[in-house]
Design brief:
Rossmann fold; seven-stranded mixed sheet; alpha/beta; single chain; 7 strands; globular
Length: 188
Protein backbone atom coordinates (compact mmCIF):
# COMPACT_ATOMS: atom_id res chain seq x y z
CA UNK A 1 0.00 0.00 0.00
CA UNK A 2 1.12 3.55 -0.70
CA UNK A 3 0.09 6.34 1.65
CA UNK A 4 -0.48 9.63 -0.13
CA UNK A 5 -0.57 12.39 2.47
CA UNK A 6 -1.77 15.87 1.56
CA UNK A 7 -0.88 18.54 4.08
CA UNK A 8 -3.26 21.32 5.01
CA UNK A 9 -5.52 22.64 7.72
CA UNK A 10 -9.05 21.33 8.28
CA UNK A 11 -12.14 23.48 7.95
CA UNK A 12 -13.78 25.72 5.38
CA UNK A 13 -11.86 28.75 6.69
CA UNK A 14 -8.58 27.29 5.36
CA UNK A 15 -9.83 25.30 2.36
CA UNK A 16 -8.62 27.69 -0.35
CA UNK A 17 -5.45 28.95 1.34
CA UNK A 18 -1.91 28.50 0.06
CA UNK A 19 -1.07 26.16 2.93
CA UNK A 20 -3.78 23.75 1.74
CA UNK A 21 -2.46 22.78 -1.70
CA UNK A 22 -1.80 19.27 -0.36
CA UNK A 23 -5.49 18.87 0.50
CA UNK A 24 -6.41 20.34 -2.91
CA UNK A 25 -4.33 17.73 -4.73
CA UNK A 26 -5.96 14.91 -2.75
CA UNK A 27 -9.41 16.28 -3.51
CA UNK A 28 -8.58 16.19 -7.26
CA UNK A 29 -7.14 12.67 -6.93
CA UNK A 30 -10.24 11.45 -5.10
CA UNK A 31 -12.48 13.04 -7.71
CA UNK A 32 -10.51 11.58 -10.65
CA UNK A 33 -10.48 8.05 -9.22
CA UNK A 34 -13.98 8.22 -7.68
CA UNK A 35 -12.76 7.82 -4.08
CA UNK A 36 -14.63 9.03 -0.98
CA UNK A 37 -13.14 10.27 2.29
CA UNK A 38 -14.16 8.99 5.73
CA UNK A 39 -12.92 10.26 9.08
CA UNK A 40 -10.77 8.01 11.28
CA UNK A 41 -7.47 8.18 13.20
CA UNK A 42 -7.44 12.00 13.24
CA UNK A 43 -7.59 12.08 9.42
CA UNK A 44 -9.86 12.02 6.44
CA UNK A 45 -8.92 8.79 4.66
CA UNK A 46 -9.88 7.31 1.32
CA UNK A 47 -8.68 3.89 0.20
CA UNK A 48 -8.71 2.49 -3.29
CA UNK A 49 -6.55 1.91 -6.33
CA UNK A 50 -4.63 4.26 -8.62
CA UNK A 51 -2.80 2.82 -11.62
CA UNK A 52 -3.49 -0.66 -10.21
CA UNK A 53 -1.72 0.13 -6.93
CA UNK A 54 -3.45 0.02 -3.54
CA UNK A 55 -3.38 3.49 -1.99
CA UNK A 56 -4.72 5.46 0.93
CA UNK A 57 -5.27 9.19 0.59
CA UNK A 58 -4.75 10.91 3.94
CA UNK A 59 -5.71 14.44 4.96
CA UNK A 60 -4.58 14.92 8.59
CA UNK A 61 -7.13 16.80 10.70
CA UNK A 62 -4.59 17.71 13.40
CA UNK A 63 -3.71 21.04 11.74
CA UNK A 64 -0.53 21.55 9.77
CA UNK A 65 2.03 21.77 12.58
CA UNK A 66 0.85 18.49 14.13
CA UNK A 67 0.46 16.47 10.92
CA UNK A 68 2.93 13.84 12.11
CA UNK A 69 0.61 12.71 14.91
CA UNK A 70 -2.10 11.66 12.45
CA UNK A 71 0.35 10.22 9.91
CA UNK A 72 2.04 8.06 12.56
CA UNK A 73 -1.33 6.58 13.58
CA UNK A 74 -1.95 5.51 9.98
CA UNK A 75 1.60 4.25 9.40
CA UNK A 76 1.41 2.11 12.56
CA UNK A 77 -1.66 0.32 11.13
CA UNK A 78 -0.63 0.08 7.48
CA UNK A 79 1.45 -2.55 5.74
CA UNK A 80 4.08 -0.55 3.90
CA UNK A 81 6.72 -1.89 1.58
CA UNK A 82 9.83 -0.32 0.04
CA UNK A 83 10.20 3.05 1.70
CA UNK A 84 10.52 5.81 0.54
CA UNK A 85 8.07 5.04 -2.25
CA UNK A 86 5.33 3.88 0.12
CA UNK A 87 4.74 7.35 1.60
CA UNK A 88 4.21 10.42 -0.57
CA UNK A 89 3.71 13.76 1.17
CA UNK A 90 2.29 16.67 -0.83
CA UNK A 91 2.82 20.16 0.55
CA UNK A 92 3.29 23.82 -0.22
CA UNK A 93 6.79 25.31 -0.47
CA UNK A 94 7.59 28.98 0.11
CA UNK A 95 11.02 28.66 -1.51
CA UNK A 96 9.67 27.63 -4.91
CA UNK A 97 8.09 30.02 -7.43
CA UNK A 98 4.32 29.95 -7.52
CA UNK A 99 3.15 26.70 -9.08
CA UNK A 100 6.58 25.09 -9.51
CA UNK A 101 6.45 21.36 -8.77
CA UNK A 102 9.44 19.58 -7.29
CA UNK A 103 9.62 15.91 -6.34
CA UNK A 104 12.18 14.83 -3.72
CA UNK A 105 13.01 11.36 -2.43
CA UNK A 106 13.92 12.50 1.10
CA UNK A 107 15.69 15.26 2.99
CA UNK A 108 15.10 17.86 5.64
CA UNK A 109 11.82 19.65 6.25
CA UNK A 110 13.12 22.81 4.59
CA UNK A 111 11.48 24.74 7.41
CA UNK A 112 8.00 23.35 6.67
CA UNK A 113 6.44 22.62 10.06
CA UNK A 114 4.02 19.97 8.76
CA UNK A 115 6.86 18.03 7.14
CA UNK A 116 8.99 18.50 10.28
CA UNK A 117 6.18 17.03 12.38
CA UNK A 118 6.04 13.97 10.11
CA UNK A 119 9.83 13.53 10.30
CA UNK A 120 9.76 13.77 14.10
CA UNK A 121 6.85 11.37 14.58
CA UNK A 122 8.01 8.78 12.04
CA UNK A 123 11.65 9.07 13.06
CA UNK A 124 12.76 9.22 9.43
CA UNK A 125 13.24 11.65 6.55
CA UNK A 126 12.90 8.72 4.18
CA UNK A 127 9.68 9.48 2.28
CA UNK A 128 8.77 11.10 -1.02
CA UNK A 129 7.67 14.72 -1.20
CA UNK A 130 5.81 16.55 -3.90
CA UNK A 131 6.32 20.23 -3.27
CA UNK A 132 4.16 22.87 -4.90
CA UNK A 133 5.58 26.36 -4.91
CA UNK A 134 3.59 29.16 -3.33
CA UNK A 135 6.44 31.71 -3.48
CA UNK A 136 6.85 34.10 -0.60
CA UNK A 137 6.31 37.74 -0.12
CA UNK A 138 8.17 40.19 2.00
CA UNK A 139 5.15 42.47 2.33
CA UNK A 140 3.32 40.38 4.95
CA UNK A 141 4.14 37.95 7.73
CA UNK A 142 4.80 34.39 6.51
CA UNK A 143 2.08 32.80 8.69
CA UNK A 144 -0.44 35.35 7.43
CA UNK A 145 0.70 34.77 3.83
CA UNK A 146 0.39 30.94 3.87
CA UNK A 147 -3.08 31.20 5.42
CA UNK A 148 -4.30 33.62 2.75
CA UNK A 149 -6.07 32.61 -0.46
CA UNK A 150 -4.41 32.67 -3.86
CA UNK A 151 -4.84 35.83 -5.93
CA UNK A 152 -7.04 35.64 -9.02
CA UNK A 153 -3.94 35.36 -11.23
CA UNK A 154 -2.42 32.64 -9.07
CA UNK A 155 -5.63 30.53 -8.95
CA UNK A 156 -5.54 29.58 -12.64
CA UNK A 157 -1.88 28.57 -12.42
CA UNK A 158 -2.37 26.61 -9.20
CA UNK A 159 -5.36 24.71 -10.66
CA UNK A 160 -3.16 23.65 -13.58
CA UNK A 161 -0.31 22.63 -11.26
CA UNK A 162 -2.65 20.63 -9.02
CA UNK A 163 -3.66 18.63 -12.09
CA UNK A 164 0.03 18.12 -12.92
CA UNK A 165 0.66 16.91 -9.36
CA UNK A 166 -2.19 14.39 -9.79
CA UNK A 167 -0.52 13.18 -13.01
CA UNK A 168 2.87 13.03 -11.24
CA UNK A 169 1.40 10.75 -8.56
CA UNK A 170 0.00 8.41 -11.23
CA UNK A 171 3.45 8.29 -12.87
CA UNK A 172 5.17 7.59 -9.54
CA UNK A 173 2.78 4.69 -8.95
CA UNK A 174 2.94 3.27 -12.48
CA UNK A 175 6.46 4.07 -13.74
CA UNK A 176 8.44 5.03 -10.65
CA UNK A 177 9.68 8.13 -8.90
CA UNK A 178 12.71 8.63 -11.15
CA UNK A 179 10.49 8.94 -14.23
CA UNK A 180 8.26 11.45 -12.41
CA UNK A 181 11.27 13.45 -11.23
CA UNK A 182 12.64 13.60 -14.78
CA UNK A 183 9.32 14.94 -16.05
CA UNK A 184 8.36 17.36 -13.29
CA UNK A 185 11.59 18.62 -11.71
CA UNK A 186 12.59 20.48 -14.84
CA UNK A 187 11.03 23.87 -15.43
CA UNK A 188 7.25 23.47 -15.33
Amino acid sequence: MTLIVGLGNPGKKYSQTKHNVGFMVLDKLANKYNLKFNERNDSLISEGFIEGKKIALIKPLTYMNLSGIAVKKIVNKAILENLPNSIIVIHDDLDLPIGKIKIKKNGSSGGHKGVQSIIEHLGTKNFLRIKIGIDKTKEIDISEYVLSPFSREQKALIKEKILQAVDAIAIILSEGVDKAMNLYNREN
